[in-house]
Design brief:
Strands 3-4-5 form a three-stranded antiparallel beta sheet, with no helix packed on it. Strands 1-2 form a two-stranded antiparallel sheet. The relative contact order is 0.24. The chain is mostly beta strands. Strand 3 and strand 4 form a beta hairpin. The chain is elongated. The protein has one domain. About 0% of the residues lie in helices and about 35% in strands. It comes from Pseudonocardia ammonioxydans.
Length: about 60
């Protein structure tokens, strides 16, 4: 894992009460991407936008 990367994963979610039960999962780590959570920009081109979420040396 890298600072500011975004991980996209697919696979089972039945352990959390979901309907998807598969034999395996697949992770796709991506660097330099942007991520929104509830319409709030959290990662902008690989940089965390929320100061409290950044490592101390990147604040």
């Amino acid at each position: 894992s890298f600072y500011g990367n975004v991980m996209f994963s697919i696979g089972p979610n039945n352990e959390l009460g979901g309907p998807n039960d598969t034999a395996c999962h697949f992770d796709i780590p991506m660097r330099g991407n942007s991520l929104y959570l509830d319409d709030e920009l959290i990662v902008d081109a690989g940089e965390l936008t929320v100061p409290e979420m950044r490592p101390v040396n990147r604040r």
